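Students often ask why we bother encoding 3D structure as a string. The short answer is that it lets us treat folding as translation between two languages. Here is a chain of 465 residues written in the first language.
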Amino acid sequence: MSEFESLLTKLLEQKPELSRSDIQQMINKKKEKIGAGYLTDQGALFLIAADLGASLNEQLKIEMGLKDLYVGAKEITLETRVMNVYPAKQFSRKDGSQFLLRTMTVYDSDSRAKVKLWDEKANLPGIENLKPGDLVKIIKAYVKSDMTGTPIINVGSGSNLETSGIESKIPLLDSITEDVSEVKENQQNLVVSGILDGNIRMTEFTNFKGQPGKALHLRLKGKNDTVTRVVLWNADEKSIPKMITAGAKTRLIGVRTKRGQQGLELHGDEGTVIEIEGVDEVQPIVVRILSLVKNDSGNILMLVTDHDKRFLNITDFIGITKDLKIGEVIEIVPTKIYGNSVTLADDSFVRKIDDEKIPTISELRTKIRDLKPGDGTYCIEAIILKMPERREIQTKNGETISLSEMFIEDETGQIWLKGWRNQARILDQFSQGEIITVIGVTAKAGLENRTELFLTPFSYIKKKN
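And here it is in the second language, the structure alphabet:
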């Protein structure tokens, strides 16, 4: 007789007014209410017995898999692999006493689950050295639910977690890694890979509790060239290399999908493991300054180019470049390089040098007919056919922003040049008939799929004498 049959027989003995069919209907309703993915028939039977005031003292199977978890299970032992480990945090109880809590995510051949380690278990020896894919054995744990009813494994004073060096049938991390193009809605605890598309940027914010926070933003391109936006909340920038090339292979361990305004997104947090190809030792670069502007925050923004005509956006947070001029060639030891985004901070170094091999602005110009949407940064020379026009645009959020646009041409074609917000003021300085050099613009597909040019915070325009 199976364990389930043994428990069912015990319940029917205590509740003779119920039939086997009645119990099965109650099991189905209980699983439907809580979620079939969270509850086995046997687990539902324990909950039903508690509802009916019956006692099932049969010992549970000691070893189980993650798919067998159900709320209320006690003294369970599982063999799993680590997906990710969160930092330990301290919390206060209602009585003012303090306790430690650390969360980790584990997986086996069939499923994935969260584990909470309480008090002294949060700082078990070696726990901070656990890496994704490591084998661990969870011993005598108990299962409770979170706010959504999902079973959570709890490791408390009577439980333990041990590393395991034995062979296992549980797949390695590579086997459960999905290409970013394959993710779907409402997925959690994912391991996702892709190609880094564009830059990595950090933002700061204040959460609903009034506490400061930060977020790491990036985009991943999948095998079908679909680009997915990624937001890693409270992620530590120290966990990624200081020098990352554009198109670097990237893997995110422990993320979930979320529907955003621009489609499906990946969201993670401080527990997400970020694996990006790169190096921690930043190498010097030699570049020519193409534009040099100061933003509203007082930081100096520069568009530069290197020997390979690659455009780089430099943000100087400490004013180390304040005495430099457009056209000069400099050697830089930056703080970090993410794709084409370069940061200068306290540990940066800059000096002027002579290097005639670095292209000049005239060598970087592109004809209007050769502009391609989404294909990088451009420098062009053109004549203004229509004076800049400024208008105010209201966004979906009710915000009013400025847009300035003018029509320009060279001998190969005509195109609209546009500037939003602060960039709108740049266009206001020019008049019809003037010949201008536009440095650092991007091309995008506009109305009727016509290519249009847009200024960026790094853009610069100068009149031809």
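Translate back mentally: Residues 144 and 152 are 5 Å apart (CA to CA). Keep this in mind for the problem set.
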